[in-house]
Amino acid sequence: MSPLWFLWVPEENVFLISTFDGAAKVKTLRRDPLMSLLIDDPLNNLGVYVLVYGKGEIIGPGEDAVAPSLALIKK
Description:
Mean pLDDT: 88
Number of helices: 2
Low-confidence stretches: none
Strand order of the largest sheet: 1-2
Order of helices and strands: EEHEEH
Radius of gyration: 13 Å
């Protein structure tokens, strides 16, 4: 596991995360799109979290990644 910024897009029912193309998580998703995402509560130390299971999709690098990346940066 590694900490990442994320953006929840409820209209599309997706989470957006950003990482670089050579990251191990990108290589793993290319091999098998099944994934999990653990979101903890940074405001307390009570072990409150959300665990999400689903399929990951790699967007980019390239023009298709620009709009999602900007949305994540604006967050």
